[in-house]
Amino acid sequence: MKKILFTLMVCVLCLGLVGGAFAYFSDTEESTGNTFTAGTLDIELGTASYSAGIDNMAPGDTVTVTIDVTSVGSLPLDYTVSASITGAIMLGENGGADDPDVSEIRIDSVSTSSDSLSASTGGDASDTIEIDITLPTTAGNNYQGLGGSLDITVDADQQ
Question: Contact, 91 vs 146, CB < 8 A?
């Protein structure tokens, strides 16, 4: 029994020496310090300007508010424009049919309420938005001297 056990140990030792006698090449490389940055989505609105008559509208008049929108971020974007009128001039007469309304929105002289901007790709980085406000011809005497505000919202989403 001792001989068998000794023979087994010698065999295991020989197998270990034979297995350890073979060399395998190996190599490990590492790349560290790789940085990344998330892009930015940022728009700016310029100062609104107005066509003549915005402070002296008569029934049937249409005035235009102009404002520039510019992409100052690093990502291309799609945007939509919406506008609403608030204030004392919104009397709701005739179910609101006599109230002033946003009659048209144009971007770069094209009748639309959406467009795209891309400052980073050398594309179109800025647009001019024109918003027409119309006081209907049916607006009666109750509208005299009343004022309101035009609120413009530009919503941008990454392309």
Answer: yes
CA distances from 87 to 100, 143, 148, 151 (A): 11, 12, 4, 11
Distances from the Cα of 23 to the Cα of 15, 17, 128, angstroms: 15, 12, 72
- Domains annotated on the chain, with CATH: 43-158 (2.60.40)
Share of the chain above pLDDT 70, in %: 85
Which amino acid, 31?
A: S
What tokens appear for 48 in the block?
A: 């609104």
Burial 18-33 (b: 16+ CB within 10 A, else e): eeeeeeeeeeeeeeee
> For 22-77, what is each residue's pLDDT tens digit?
679 999 999 999 999 999 999 999 999 988 778 899 999 999 999 999 999 999 99
